[in-house]
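Structure tokens please, single chain.
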Amino acid sequence: MQKQAGLYAEKKRVQWINATGVVSRVSHKIQAMLGMRDAQSRAQAFVEFMAEGKGKSDATALDLGDGWTRITRVVNGKTALIDVQCDSDGQVVDARYPGKFPFLPEGKEREAYNTVLHEMQLKAPDALSQVPVYYVNRNTRGYLIPTHGYVVAGYPNRGRKSGAILYGVGGDPKRGHVVLDEKLLGHLIGKDYSKNPHKLSAEIRAALLALAGTLFATREEFYEAYRRARGGEASSFALHDEITAIYRLLPLSTMEMWPKKAGDYRVERPPAPERDLRAFEHLPRDFRRKVWLRKISDVDSIDLLEARQQFTLHQLYQDELLGRNGTGVPLRNPEVKMDVARRNRVLAPTPRFQRLPPHKTDKVGNCNTGASSLLQRAVDRYADKNNLPSKKVAAASFFGIGSTHRLAIWDPLGIDAKKGITS
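Here you go.
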């Protein structure tokens, strides 16, 4: 019944539009009011109108075989679709509705492709909409104000149907340097007069004391040194658990800044990036949970994707040169070996996490800094493509601390290459 009602409305509109003048339109209206134009006559007029579209610029025709032809035609800015069967003289003898998933004839894939392409070109401006982009600020566990920031492309508060894609940047606990100075050792090992003097076991504390005062440029270097200091007593699984426990206690300032990746939404306790997406897909109603949204105009989600790809390219480049895979555990047979000087040169442009301002250089920042940097790059690219003045992006909340600062996104084919950073 719904399809019949829609077809009836379409036929009525088409017949009204096809009237050549005011007199014809008034005549059609009078005939409809007097009952002289019943549903059958209106359906016949609509089918004839569609059949007349063969060969016209606003219509496409696809031969389905057995005398059937699928005709698509633009009617008052909308796209109408119908199958008609004609005799040898070209007269319509039958018509049918193609359905939601129309059948396509075998052996005529190219013709079907051309027809669908033409249909998309006719109705794409109305049917395809630009994916909205939002700057999101929310409060995380333990905080009352929405200081955490990231960018999402999608539709908010629609659940898994939001189509949300996360564009966040944050500290990576498995990538970064390790400095076993007195302050860090006091935090890891503890003090005898404190309430909780020993966070780690005696064997772990002994291995850390043996490495006191050493600087490790990467987590992988620290892993190898710790394994040697620990000796062969611990198994590989126990060693991995010990290293993981140490990584959790390292300062946030030792973490490198890289794009975040959402995890599996089906797990009960998802990681932080997945929680960011869930907060966007299901806006919290609890007054203690705050989510602020700012819709960003003059930006394309494709440009945002390219900005993240550029950031990720830097990460992949470093991982390949340093022989790491993001787990904090060194590869058994790294393909690339490099000296200390080149390693330091490769790590020099790496952005590092710093939670609070002042952010004195373009190599440090927090989650808001990373999100606004990605978004600013996308906005600038959109402005260049459309000859528009570039706008400075802002956070959704006043508490989006760090959003006014920008990270220098590594560009191997631009300025960085001229400086010799990639060598």
